[in-house]
Amino acid sequence: MPKRLFDLIVATLGLALLALPGLLVALAIRLDSPGPVFFRQERVGQGGRLFRIHKLRTMRVDAEHLGGPLTVGADPRVTRIGAFLRAHRLDELPQLIDVLRGDMSLVGPRPEVPRYVALYPAALREQVLAVRPGITDPASLAFRGEARQLAAAADPEREYVEVILPNKLALAADYAAHATLWTDLGVVARSLRVLLTR
């Protein structure tokens, strides 16, 4: 089964199954803090093309003006329901919409903001951006404690740029070089296991 067909089938089924729970989560977000249900942000996709990613809003609406793009530890910008959604990775589920639109895949390197893509070494940039970005990938599984790691650093921005980002890029490049439908199924299975055992 081609990767794109697999993406379409799973994304369609996922959105159908999540429709009712999604309405309840949307209500909880609106009751918890003023602002929209969805958070949309510009990311860099396949071939360097820009797109706007969908997420459930987990921060105050003025969060981007109160701090940088990184979420560090117990970030005070995160709302109460947002903390729960982030802990269980539920804020990422609306990206199934991006999968249907063709901007993303279920599995692929996580899409970064332009600010950090500009720091990619040329060779790795070409390799990582050669494939569609994904909702999950080996790097997001390896660095699921990223916020805690940043909180423990004296300079979170430097820690991200000099330590976390190079390691994520290496994993993303390895994924891009060896990805198959079977490896994708393995990543999906590992992601579901992490999600269900949180």
What are the main properties of this structure?
mainly alpha, two-stranded antiparallel sheet, two-stranded parallel sheet, 10 helices, 4 strands, 56% helix
Mean pLDDT: 90
Q: How would you sum up the global shape? A: globular
Question: Going across the major beta sheet, what is the strand order?
Answer: 1-2
Q: Runs with pLDDT <50, length 5+?
A: none
Task: Name the structural class.
Answer: mainly alpha
In DSSP terms (H or I, runs of 4 or more residues), the helix count works out at 10
Biggest pleated-sheet summary:
2 strands, antiparallel
What is the ordering of alpha helices and beta strands?
Answer: HEEHHHEHHEHHHH
Number of strands: 4
Distance between the termini: 31 Å
Percent helix: 55-70%
Count of all domains:
1
Radius of gyration: 16 Å
Question: Which percent range describes the beta-strand content?
Answer: 5-15%
Structure report:
The longest helix has 30 residues, at 3-32. The strands form 2 sheets. This protein has a two-stranded antiparallel ribbon with strand order 1-2. The chain has a two-stranded parallel sheet with strand order 3-4. The chain is mainly alpha-helical. It has one domain. The two termini are 31 Å apart. It has helices at residues 3-32, 63-66, 80-87, 95-101, 114-117, 122-128, 138-142, 146-151, 156-178, 181-197; strands at residues 38-44, 50-56, 105-107, 134-136. Strand 1 (38-44) and strand 2 (50-56) form a beta hairpin. The radius of gyration is 16 Å and the shape is globular. Helix 1 (3-32) runs antiparallel to helix 4 (95-101). The chain contains 10 helices and 4 strands.
